[in-house]
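User: Structure please.
Assistant: Input sequence and predicted structure:
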Amino acid sequence: MSALYLGFVFILPIEYAGLPRGMMGKIILESTITCPKCGYVKTETMPEDACQWFYECVNCHYLLKPLKGDCCVFCSYSTISCPPIQCRENC
């Protein structure tokens, strides 16, 4: 990993900002979410313009909530961050 140091700011390669290399500017809407209680995995489509605060596992019906410091359940439990975070916007 190489980072560019500009004063007090480090600029990291794009793969460390939540997007795979080559995906800058492209929003990924499908993400695989994993239930922390039963381990059930499902691919879901994320909302484009909002953060999803709750998600009910279709297997065990556990209600997922964001972990402290995360804006939504996708940022906490899925493979891809939510669209607002991918765009580097506030939720």
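The first helix runs from residue 73 to 77.
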